[in-house]
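Key result, reporting period 2: structure in, sequence out.
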């Protein structure tokens, strides 16, 4: 399409809008003649939300002012109860691990006859 053909379809952009014009656009949008974006393009209306603002002001329907979402926790954040439960499970696993290592040390002491467990407070031998 050449520039001349493009200019034939282009609507001049408007800066000031009368109340009657705004109401006409809202009526066409609400009756389904045009979509909000279609009205913007058809009438050369500047601004992405201008037609929506007019619909809120002059329209018959309820248009949501803001799309609010309920506050959601970050996916990695846990409630305090979940965190406590998780920590209790980790503590139980750690206690089982400690008991296993102590049993292994006792078995090694009985079978090999050497004390592997470190005794704190003892001086190192000079061997």
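The corresponding designed sequence is given below.
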């Amino acid at each position: 399409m050449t520039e001349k053909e493009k200019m034939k379809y282009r609507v001049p952009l408007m800066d000031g809008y009368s109340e009657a014009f705004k109401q006409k656009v809202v009526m066409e949008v609400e009756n389904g003649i045009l979509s909000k974006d279609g009205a913007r393009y058809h009438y050369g209306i500047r601004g992405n939300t201008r037609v929506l603002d007019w619909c809120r002001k002059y329209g018959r329907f309820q248009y949501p002012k803001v799309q609010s979402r309920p506050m959601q926790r970050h996916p990695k954040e846990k409630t305090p109860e979940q965190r406590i439960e998780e920590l209790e499970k980790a503590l139980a696993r750690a206690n089982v691990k400690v008991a296993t290592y102590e049993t292994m040390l006792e078995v090694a002491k009985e079978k090999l006859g050497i004390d592997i467990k470190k005794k704190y407070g003892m001086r190192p031998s000079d061997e």
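The helical segments are 3-9, 19-30, 36-43, 50-58, 80-112. Residues 51 and 99 are 71 Å apart (CA to CA). This case is discussed further under Risks and Mitigation.
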